[in-house]
Amino acid sequence: MIESNYDPFAYSKVGASGLWQMMPGTASGFGIKVDWWYDGRRDIIASTNAALDYFSYLGNFFDNQWLLAIAAYDTGEGTVNQSVQRNAKLGKSTNFWSLHLSKETQSYVPKLLALATIIKNPSEYPVNWPSISNQPYLATVNVGSQIDLARVAKMSKMSLQELAQLNPGFNRWATDPNILTRILLPVDKAAQFERSLKKLPIDKRVTWVGYKVKS
Question: Which of 43, 84, 100, 161 is most buried as measured by Cβ atoms within 10 A of its Cβ?
């Protein structure tokens, strides 16, 4: 909510992207693929797994001092560590509240703590949270080949816009031809899509031809 307001297409002026606003270098370091076809920073599952791995790394890096780890997620472990070392040399406290960091990072941690407090104690705050059933909403379907996204939407009886919102990692009108494709669909749409997919020959899954213009 703080990073992207749950918008998987969010893109910052410094180049961070996706739900977790990951920078290209960080994403690459945690196994996220980014190319012409696909940006894993926007992939809901891939980016969330990478963000969790990054938080685990930061927690270990800062000896489970989680306010430092959270600050480092925003501004980088090097920046936070330098501030810690600077305070240590001056004989000052090295906790988060004592560090000299950017205004953005100084507000980032309190925002997260405030949000956690509100969610933990919903009856004490005038916030009307939506009711969400405690059951899976998404199902993963392995397609096994490149496929036109408009065709996926039609076969799943969904709008292309809804499909794109659930699968924001795809940069183009079709999935990546070079990797095993995973599509996220609502649970009640997945079975319909899988039935239709079995009847569709692989050579009919893409309805256009790519052409590389010669110099």
Answer: 43
Enumerate the H helices of 30-159 as residue ranges: 44-61, 66-75, 77-89, 103-120, 149-156
pTM: 0.87
| Token pair of 45 as six digits | 């599952």
Residues annotated as catalytic are: 3
How far apart (Å, rounded) are the C-alpha atoms in residues 46 and 211? 30
Find residue 185's DSSP bridge partners.
Answer: 139
- Rounded to an integer, what distance in angstroms lies between the CA atom of residue 42 and that of residue 16? 10
Pairwise CA distance, residues 88 & 67, whole Å: 17
How many C-beta atoms surround the C-beta of residue 211 within 10 A?
6
- pLDDT tens-digit series, residues 21-47: 999 999 999 999 999 999 999 999 999
Q: What is the pLDDT of residues 58-117, one digit of tens each?
A: 999 999 999 999 999 999 999 999 999 999 999 999 999 999 999 999 999 999 999 999
Q: Is 148 helix (H, G, I), strand (E, B) or coil?
A: strand
